[in-house]
Amino acid sequence: MSDMTGTPHVPANAPDSSYGLIFVLFRPTSQHVENLRAARSQCDAIVAVDNTPEPDLALHDEFRAAGVDVVDNRNAGGLAGAYNRGTELLLERGVELVFLLDQDSTIDDSFCQRMAADCAPLRGTPFLVGPRIHETRAGNLMPLMPPTNPGFEVPEVDGLTPVEFLISSGSAFSAEAFRVLGEFREDFFIESVDIEYGLRGWARGVPSFANTRVTLDQTTGNISVHGEKFTFNHHAERCYYRARNYLFTLREYFPPRQAARALRFALQQVLLVLRFEDRKAQKVVATLAAVYDGLRGNLGRFEDVRPRTARFCTRR
Fold first, then answer.
1. Same-domain status, 135 and 187
2. In which pathway is this protein known to take part (predicted)?
3. Residues 213 and 279 reside in one and the same domain
4. Quick check: is 12 in a domain?
């Protein structure tokens, strides 16, 4: 494990520089810094992108002293912006496989090595790959959704299952995939950035795979379980981005009959909020505004698209 104030320890079985990792920070706690240290022990090429509006610059100096590149992004473009800035740096360094990791995610000592080894047969091609996700609060593995009618022949690789999209944290994409697909959508800001990228991939001949041999523990929001149902307990602005971007994405990549499932999803979220969550008025208003904006293609930051609604929904 790295010492953030000294020379990082590199294990004997350290990977080569063919892959790198983007670690996204937002108001990091000491635990998040520990997670970054664990990630640093696996990758020679690692970029910490700090989306904190007013970051701790002394902490940045500690990261740099430990061999971590730091991007002071201050939430420009949200999560998508962090991914794009980090990818630019890693591709400049000649990295062939780019891993994404959120600060809440923890990986074991061989995570990147195993993921890279299992997708080695795809080397030199455009692809996206991710682990199975174990939702720690819900206590189960997230389901794998097969792709909807891919329009090209999908490579067969032992242990890799084609999926419609991946959860971004823990996933990776080849340099060739980024060159084909381009940047993550910064007008999404946050939420469904990964879903849109996966669907864009299938539309442009770039497959996504789940590595069934590797599992990542992760918590999705402040999730709470109510029998067979669950709620995320996001703030109202996250409800807005989640519903709007998901609806817009399905509208872009699917026929109307299939895209209608996003409307059902939004309605279900409203009903669950009314039944189980607090700050009901703000969250319901945010979700209804999201449906309208998703259908109309009104993208961008909530406070820019709907200033008055955003002020109501985000007041504490």
1. yes
2. Cell wall biogenesis; cell wall polysaccharide biosynthesis
3. no
4. no
CA dihedral sign, ordered 44, 22, 32, 166: negative
Q: Encoding tokens for residue 54?
A: 């007013």
Give Dmax (Cα) for the chain.
57
**Full 3-state SS string of 41-94:** CCCCEEEEEECCCCCCHHHHHHHHHCCCEEEECCCCCHHHHHHHHHHHHHHHCC
Collapsed DSSP state (helix, strand, coil) of residue 178: helix
Contact yes or no for 186/80 (Cβ under 8 A): yes
248 and 290 assigned to the same domain: yes
Model confidence pLDDT, tens digit, residues 245-256: 999 999 999 888
Q: Would you state the structure tokens that stand for residue 268, as one six-digit string?
A: 């279900």
CA quadruple 191, 242, 166, 228: dihedral positive or negative? positive
Give me the DSSP letters along 133-166: EEETTTTEEPPPPPPSS-SSPPPP-TTEEE-S--
Domain of 41, in residue numbers: 19-218
| 36 lies in the same domain as 134 | yes
The string of pLDDT tens digits covering residues 52-93 is 999 999 999 999 999 999 999 999 999 999 999 999 999 999
In-domain check, residue 9 = no
Given the DSSP bridges, would you call strands 97-102 and 172-174 parallel, antiparallel or unpaired? antiparallel
- CB neighbour burial string for 31-61, b if at least 16 within 10 angstroms, e if fewer: ebbebbbbbbbbbbbbbbbbbeeebeeebbe
Residues 50 and 104 both lie in one domain: yes
CA atoms of 213 and 209, how far apart (whole Å): 12
Distances (CA, A) of 114 to 23, 27, 214: 18, 30, 8
C-beta of residue 148 within 8 angstroms of C-beta of residue 164: yes
For residues 78 and 90, the answer to whether their CB atoms sit within 8 Å is: no
Together in a domain, 119 and 33: yes
Residue 67 lies in a domain: yes
- pLDDT band with cut points at 50, 70 and 90 for residue 10: very low
Residue 201 lies in a domain: yes
Query: What's the total number of domains in the chain?
Result: 2
Q: Where are the alpha helices (DSSP H) in 216-279?
A: 236-253, 256-276
